[in-house]
Amino acid sequence: MHHIMIIIDFMTSSHITFFQALNNLGSVYVDCGKLDLAADCYINALKIRHTRAHQGLARVHFLKNDRNAAYEEMTKLIEKARNNASAYEKRSEYCDREISKDDLQMVTRLDPLRVYPYRYRAAGKI
Fold first, then answer.
1. Which end of the chain is more exposed for a tag (fewer CB within 10 A), N or C?
2. Handedness of CA 14, 33, 37, 100 (dihedral sign)
3. How confident is the model at residue 16 (pLDDT cuts 50, 70, 90)?
4. pLDDT band at 59 (very low <50, low <70, confident <90, very high)
5. Distance between CA atoms of 94 and 72, rounded to whole angstroms?
6. Helix crossing, 53-63 with 35-47: angle to 10°?
7. Predicted local distance difference test score (pLDDT) of residue 66
8. Model's pTM, two decimal places?
9. In this prediction, what percent of the chain has a pLDDT beyond 90?
10. CB atoms within 10 A of CB 2
11. Taking residues 81-95, what's their average pLDDT?
């Protein structure tokens, strides 16, 4: 735990907010394969209302082969960050084809200039 506080202290002293530091640390843990520690960081970031931590927690669920939990976590982000094209785009990676299609259509409605939905369609995945 001491090493975590040192990292967070460094991150916060470099003008990064505490919840951003937790979120960043969660990403480092994911990259190192320490998924439980990553989940702890994201959950703590959520406790202090850093809504983007839902995306990190969704990634942890997905890496643990729990697509349903990943999808639900991204749904929480969508509910909190209304009309968020990137959240719909990311959630489309965690669901079945039909739901993915709906999410990507929403992305296109919200932000017609986003490239990912068009590439996905061109690849024949929808």
1. N
2. positive
3. low
4. very high
5. 9
6. 150
7. 97
8. 0.77
9. 40
10. 6
11. 86
Q: Does residue 57 sit in helix, strand or coil?
A: helix
Position 65, amino acid: N
Place of tokens 């997905």: 62
Give the DSSP letter of residue 66. -
Residues 6+ apart with CB under 8 A from 7: 21, 25, 28
C-alpha 20/C-alpha 91 separation (Å) is: 21
Q: Copy the structure tokens of residue 39.
A: 């989940």
Residue 13's φ and ψ, nearest 5 degrees, are -75, -15
Sequence-separated (6 or more) residues with CB below 8 Å from residue 52: 23, 45, 77
At position 16, the amino acid (one-letter code) is I
